[in-house]
Design goal:
By secondary structure, the protein is mainly α. Helices cover 53% and strands 1% of the residues. Strands 1-2 form a two-stranded parallel ribbon. Residues 1-27 have low confidence and may be disordered.
């Protein structure tokens, strides 16, 4: 009787363990704490990191000209995103141009080293750059959130320009850079910029100062960040009326602009022209939604 009882208990435990493992796979419950790389891979990644990454991220992964790849700041940035976002950012955008980009295998090895340095345990299988798989792997939430410095004593800045001036000075050129990607591949080699002739190519101009894909990155970030300027109290419309910063539609459209800028930046990080071109639909919609309600020389409030 006891033997049969123990066998029954053993069977139940096996089923429970198998069931919980299956549930974890079905719900995307994998974590970087589950051992998603090998020690040998991390050793290779350390050599690559020292040769290609330390100039920007530092010997101790604490950051230099580039952001940290360890510690509280790193954890607070990446714990809300899957491992695929970190892996493909390294693969597609690192090291900074004109350096030769990393291969898939090199990027995977560097990620393995970053995880090892962060004290995440190793496993039996090497990490492979497979987007679908890595999307299911998450970072744990930071044990202790980094304390924010109090924002007391900061100066109160008043608006310098009207909402139209901000749009035409920041949003218009930045949006044009994003829209230009529909017809110009930032990754393609281009002839030197012509300073004469009709029109002004913002993407070409920026390409003479920064790598072209970085110009697209900066334009997308400026769109997302400038959305805050639309909600600055005291700003005026072109006709002198106050910007309706408390209007629910104005707030909604401002949030749409911020989301479109962030989406354009995420698309730009893929370094793929078609992906960025597709993202311009969201940017166009966010602009048109607001223009239909608020645009016009005689008003900056809803009709």
């Amino acid at each position: 009787m006891n033997l049969r009882y123990h066998r029954l208990i053993g069977t139940v435990l096996i089923c429970l363990i198998a069931g919980s493992s299956l549930l974890a796979l079905q719900t995307g419950g994998r974590s970087v704490s589950d051992g998603v790389y090998t020690d040998q891979q991390a050793t290779r990644g350390q050599a690559i990191y020292k040769a290609r990454c330390t100039s920007c991220h530092g010997d101790a992964l604490a950051g230099r000209t580039g952001p940290p790849l360890s510690g509280n700041d790193f954890a607070s940035t990446w714990h809300t995103q899957p491992l695929s976002e970190l892996a493909y950012k390294i693969r597609r955008t690192m090291p900074k141009l004109p350096d030769v980009p990393l291969t898939d295998a090199e990027a995977a090895d560097v990620v393995a080293y970053v995880l090892q340095f962060g004290k995440f345990p190793s496993g039996r299988a090497e990490l492979v750059l497979n987007e679908a798989t890595l999307k299911e792997v998450k970072f744990p939430a930071p044990a202790v959130a980094a304390a924010r410095a109090p924002e007391t004593g900061l100066p109160s800045l008043t608006p310098s320009g009207s909402v139209n001036q901000v749009m035409r000075g920041i949003l218009f050129p930045s949006a044009n850079i994003i829209f230009t990607v529909q017809t110009i591949d930032p990754g393609a080699k281009r002839p030197p910029v012509e300073t004469t002739g009709a029109g002004f190519d913002w993407l070409a101009w920026g390409n003479s100062v920064y790598p072209a894909w970085e110009v697209v990155d900066y334009a997308a970030i400026s769109l997302a960040e400038s959305a805050k300027l639309m909600l600055t109290p005291g700003r005026r419309c072109e006709n002198g009326r106050p910007v309706p910063v408390s209007d629910p539609d104005w707030i909604k459209f401002t949030l749409e602009l911020e989301a479109a800028g962030k989406a354009a930046y995420k698309a730009s990080q893929t370094r793929n022209q078609e992906t960025v071109s597709d993202s311009t639909n969201q940017l166009n919609d966010s602009c048109m939604n607001c223009h239909r309600v608020f645009r016009g020389r005689t008003r900056c409030v809803k009709p």
